[in-house]
Amino acid sequence: MAGFDKVVHSYEEALAGLTDGMSMAVGGFGLCGIPENLIAQVKKMGTRDLTVFSNNCGVDGFGLGLLLQDKQISRIYASYVGENKEFERQMLEGELEVILTPQGTLAEKMRAGGAGIPAFYTATGYGTPIAEGKETREFNGRHYVLEEAINADFSLVKAWKADRYGNAIYRHTAQNFNPMAATCGKICVMEVEEIVEPGELDPAQIQTPGIYVNRLIQGTFEKRIEKRTVRQG
C-alpha cells in the first residue's frame, strides 16, 4: 500500500493496529453486505473489550456473532437483537452492554460522525427510554432528542467493486449501513469482491469515494442466507 493505492494483501495487514478496548463501526444488515472476512480476522486476533456500532450482531456462529463466542465485544450500539440467541442471552444476563438505538438514528449517528457533525436533534425516541439522560428541546411545537455522532477507531465495511484508489460501489441492498460506517472511522478497512484499475468504474456510480478508505482487500465470500422460507408441497 503506497500513496493513492489502498490495496493490502493480507487480513493481518488490513487490521494492523486494532487493539483491545478500541471501537469499530461495522457495515451490514443481518448477513447482507457484512465484512465477514474482516470479522473473522478480528476473531482470529482475539482482540477484546471492543465497542461495536452495527445494526445487529450477525447470527450465532457467523458475522459479528463470531465475536460473541469468546466475549470479545463488551459494548454494542445496535437496533436489532433477533436471530442471535447468544446476543440475547448475554444482554439479558448482563454480560454485554447493549445500547439499543433506533435504526435511522444509528445510521445518522454514523453519517454525522463522518461529516464532522458532533450531534443532531431527532424526534425519534422522544418520550421513551431512548431519550433518558439525553438533552431534549422543542422546535416549532415538536420535541426532539439530542443524539451524539459516532466516531470509531476502525470502520469495517464490505463493497462490491472498488478501484485501487478505494473508490467503491455497492450491489443493491448490500449497500445498507456500509457507506455511513465507512466515513466515521479513523481507519476505514474495506473488503470487496473485485478490485479493478482506476478509470474502470463509472465516476457517476461511485458511492464511497476513495478519500474515506485507508485499506482495501479483495476477499471471497460465503454469502449465507439468513432465513429461507419455501412453500409447502
Radius of gyration: 18 Å
Reported CATH architecture: 3-Layer(aba) Sandwich
Please state roughly what percent of the residues sit in beta strands, choosing from under 5%, 5-15%, 15-25%, 25-35%, 35-45% or over 45%. 25-35%
Summarize model confidence as the mean pLDDT: 95
| Number of extended strands | 11
Any idea what the shape is?
globular
Low-confidence parts: none
Helical run tally: 6
Cα separation of the termini: 54 Å
**Helix/strand structural class:** alpha/beta
CATH superfamily: Glutaconate Coenzyme A-transferase
The major β-sheet equals: 8 strands, mixed
CATH class categorisation = Alpha Beta
Q: Name the helicity range.
A: 10-25%
CATH topology: Glutaconate Coenzyme A-transferase
Tally of distinct domains = 1
Helix and strand sequence: HEHEHEHEHEEEEEHEE
Kindly describe this structure.
- The protein has 233 residues and is α/β, with parallel strands linked by helices.
- The protein has a single domain, classed as 3-Layer(aba) Sandwich (Glutaconate Coenzyme A-transferase), CATH 3.40.1080.10.
- It has helices spanning 11-14, 36-45, 65-69, 85-92, 103-115, 178-183; strands at 23-26, 50-53, 73-78, 97-100, 119-122, 136-139, 142-148, 152-163, 168-169, 185-196, 215-218.
- Strands 1, 2, 3, 4, 8, 9, 10 and 11 form an eight-stranded mixed sheet that branches.
- The N and C termini lie far apart (54 Å).
